[in-house]
Amino acid sequence: MKLSPLQQYGIVTANYWAFTLTDGALRMLVVFHFHQLGYTTLEIAALFLLYEFFGVVTNLYGGWIGARYGLRLTLWIGTLLQILALLMLVPVSATWPKLLSVVYVMAAQAISGIAKDLNKMSAKSAIKAVVPHSADAEQQGQQQLFKWVAILTGSKNALKGVGFFLGGVLLAALGFNAAVGWMAAALAVAFLLTLVLPREIGKMKSKPAFSSLFSKSQGINVLSLARFFLFGARDVWFVVALPVFLEASLGWNFWEIGGFLGLWVIGYGIIQGSAPNLRRLWGQTAPPGVSAVQFWSAVLTAIPALIAIALWRQVDVSIAITAGLAAFGVVFAMNSSIHSYMVLAYTDAESVSLNVGFYYMANAAGRLAGTMLSGAVFMLGRTEAAGMQACLWVASLFVLLSWVSSLRLPGVLKTAQ
Question: Whose CA is closest to 88, among 114, 125, 122?
Fold first, then answer.
């Protein structure tokens, strides 16, 4: 049975949605479960370091594998590895020594990190491979590409927020071990849907050399550097510093923190998915271009700095964090959505998985740097408020560097500037 491009997109998206639900739920399951066992928040954060590190490696090599053997294979491997990671966590017990638990869970999280980035690279590359193009309707094709990228990216982040809630519900209803087992079973069903995808999707006609791992495109290289700083800016205050600060300064428990962050991720995903419609409301009918990347990066630079100033001036913490996080989420979502479109606009369908893999390698490296700095910079402050302010200033610096990087971006389309 020959699938239409839209049917291929639907299958890839359905698998990506199912994967994203398990990814978000697993993060909350690990956080809540090990917090109940008495682990500190920094010890819990350490469980995710290999998850982020292997994302860097996976995106680099995963794009090359996808180009040589097709995106269907990388999608399959990513989904099956996530099932393996979930099954590995089924026997985890509170009676295990702490060192054994940490090493074992870090190994499972490393596999999950490989799975997540293989799946994401495959899903986002597949969009370029299935979107129809014609020389006489280039701008219309770019608009359609932007729309599909925004829908996939936005829905993924919204569902990740739902996954945060799902993780808490499953932990309460089933317990940690049964919850990961049921999630593995559900993801196995989603995997079966992908068996009908064509073998050649995303495969290059000529086998790419190993040296082609590193992009030779100025647009991809510069955008990747900007992406590194953009996602480092988010995670340097969001991953470790913010949950610890909310617990220490506001006395929130982990259920409240998980719910709050889950709602933020859902809202962030909705904005991402709505980016094309929002641009039309503002009178922007052409696909986004270099000027859009630079504008949204410049706006975002100010937001972490303003939150830090508000905390320094002792503005009510709940108001400063809630309002600041909402503003950051809206502007960051627009940044991320336009970035995700631009990487596909800079590449062609033939080499899409190589370029997207390289680009998301930079994304994962930014997350890794942000995660490590989030714990380290926060600890430099003498108080929780001072540590949070320090993380926010570093976040502002990172966004500034992202904006500076974007000044060297080449044009894509004359209509996109």
Answer: 114
- DSSP-derived secondary structure for 345-407: HTS-STTHHHHHHHHHHHHHHHHHHHHHHHHHHHHHSSSHHHHHHHHHHHHHHHHHHHHHHHT
Which DSSP symbol is given to 411? P
Per-residue pLDDT reduced to its tens digit, 190-244: 999 888 887 766 555 555 555 555 556 788 889 999 999 999 999 998 877 888 7
Using CA atoms, how far apart are residues 184 and 116, in angstroms rounded to an integer?
A: 14
Q: What is the pLDDT of residues 351-396, one digit of tens each?
A: 666 777 788 888 888 988 898 888 788 888 778 889 899 999 999 9
In this structure, are residues 393 and 203 in contact, taking their beta carbons and an 8 Å threshold? no
pTM equals 0.77
152 closest CA partner among 185, 130, 183: 130
State whether residue 135 is helix, strand or coil. Answer: helix
Asked if 80 and 191 count as a contact pair (C-beta separation under 8 A), the reply is yes
Q: How many CA atoms lie within 13 A of 42 on its CB side?
A: 9
205-211 long-range contacts, Cβ below 8 Å, gap at least 24?
A: 205/350, 207/68, 208/64, 208/67, 208/68, 208/351, 208/354, 210/64
Q: Give the E-state strand segments of 54-172 in sequence order.
A: none
CA dihedral 113, 184, 268, 351 (to 10 degrees): 50
Q: How far is CA 190 from CA 12, 146, 172, 184, 300, in A?
A: 10, 26, 24, 10, 37
For residue 2, give the DSSP letter: P
Q: Vertex 362, ends 109 and 202: CA angle to 5°?
A: 85
Cβ distance 121 to 63 under 8 Å?
Answer: yes
Provide CB contacts within 8 A for 24, sequence distance 6+.
159, 160, 161, 162, 163, 164, 166, 167, 262, 265
- Check: CB of residue 55 under 8 Å from CB of residue 118: no
Distance CA 28, CA 21 (A): 11
Contact 87, 184 (CB under 8 A): yes
